[in-house]
Amino acid sequence: MTWSCFAMRSPRNNPLATLLLLAIVGQPSGATRGADWMQLRGPNSTGVVQDATFPEHWSETENIVWKQPIAGRGWSSPIVAGDRVFITTVVRQQGEDEAAKPGLYFGGNREETEDVVLDWQLLCFRLGDGELLWTEVLHSGKPPTPRHVKNSYASETPVSDGQHVYVLFGDVGLYSVDFQGNVVWTKELPPCKTRYDWGTAASPVLFEDRLYFVSDNEDASYLAAIDTATGDEVWRTDRDEKSNWSTPYIWQNSQRTEIITPGTGRSRAYDLAGELLYEWGGASSITIATPYAAHGLLYVTSGYVGDKKRPIYALRPGASGDVSLEDDAVSNEHIAWFKPQAAPYNPSTIVYEDQLYVLYDRGLFASYHARTGALVYDQQRIRNGRSFTASPWAANGKLYCLNEFGETFVIKTGSEYELLHVNQLESKQLAMATPAIVGSRLILRTGDALYCIGEK
What we know:
By secondary structure, the chain is mostly beta strands. It has a single domain (3-453), classed as YVTN repeat-like/Quinoprotein amine dehydrogenase (Methylamine Dehydrogenase, Chain H), CATH 2.130.10.10. Helix content is 1%, strand content 39%. The chain has one helix at residues 17-20, and strands at 7-9, 48-49, 64-69, 79-81, 84-92, 118-126, 132-141, 159-160, 164-169, 173-178, 183-188, 205-207, 210-215, 221-227, 233-239, 249-252, 257-261, 267-270, 276-280, 292-294, 297-301, 312-315, 321-322, 335-339, 350-352, 355-359, 364-369, 375-381, 393-395, 398-402, 407-412, 419-424, 436-438, 441-445, 449-453. Strands 1-11-10-9-8 form a 5-stranded antiparallel sheet, with no helix packed on it. The longest helix has 4 residues, at 17-20. The radius of gyration is 21 Å and the shape is globular. Residues 60-238 form the Pyrrolo-quinoline quinone repeat domain. InterPro entries: PQQ_b-propeller_rpt, PQQ_rpt_dom, Quinoprotein_ADH-like_sf, WD40/YVTN_repeat-like_dom_sf. It comes from Aureliella helgolandensis. It holds the Pfam family PQQ_2. This is Pyrrolo-quinoline quinone repeat domain-containing protein.
């Protein structure tokens, strides 16, 4: 596969856009407003909000500002920019999606593509009242590759700069769409073979006027930088990796800005020109979680449940070359601390104040000191927690963990584990998406609906 596989298409307009008269929030590309949640896991990819005022309790009949049904299937998270909420989904033109079972299991691989036409869609809602303002079909056609029954064709979360939404659909394309639903540019992506045809999931990220995304696959993996104004390639760096599903992270540390890309073969850091800065090995055989930074450290995890290696790494800035740990070592000049068997599989970890919290897929919960890695409390069973895929979020001294059944478990932060209560929402399909938080509102996606939760 070469970069020439990408093809640009001319911009096209949504014919309904002129009827919508939407209020567009004007700000420079790449700017961040404190009230916005414009990427996966929010500002700095941490999942933490210090001044949120959304309610602690909710249900189908309590503190629901609005609820909108969502057709099709998509595990992508909602994002919020100004008074607009954006999500993606893929809708079948006929028939129904095969039901996905909750939990971790074998037997979900699908080797053949379905003979069905799909619509890859971007939806825009008004934050205040939930009105669906527009739906843009970015691509229609038969699926180019199979998918694991528990994956979707809309698993990548879009990202926004406050003026445009950038949408990645793995084997289909990359799109820039303005807030009126007009497609500014389109870049077609060739289908790529993933491990066991599980499909894609890594989301794009923004920094200044560049869009970065990773395509780690079985054919030819790469990290790419795209000009947000034109969709043109800025650079592409080939990667000696096979399939991974981890979203890259832009780490602005005390010494420089780095692009962090976890991987099963090697986790790597690149500069903004795509040049390799440093790397290290030791991940599990499947890498999914999103990295992030806190207390001046970078946290990278990889935790396939079937492996003995399920590491959490905390790294200091300024590394170069190969910084892999020697046998039996738990730290070195650049790795502040390391836990060899502590990482979750699907969820990302989260740091709130001085503690790092770990939500495990099968309903366990643990905590470590964020700066040292010392154990705060070992794995605790979340009562009736069952199965978790979405990453936890934190606000006002509480951690929130959404399971695949639409239940959110509210856990007190601190040195002792304490489950406070559980908030239940209905969901006929699996709830797999991490929510967005904007001040007094929590935007939560279950398998078949989008909720705005707020005091009511």
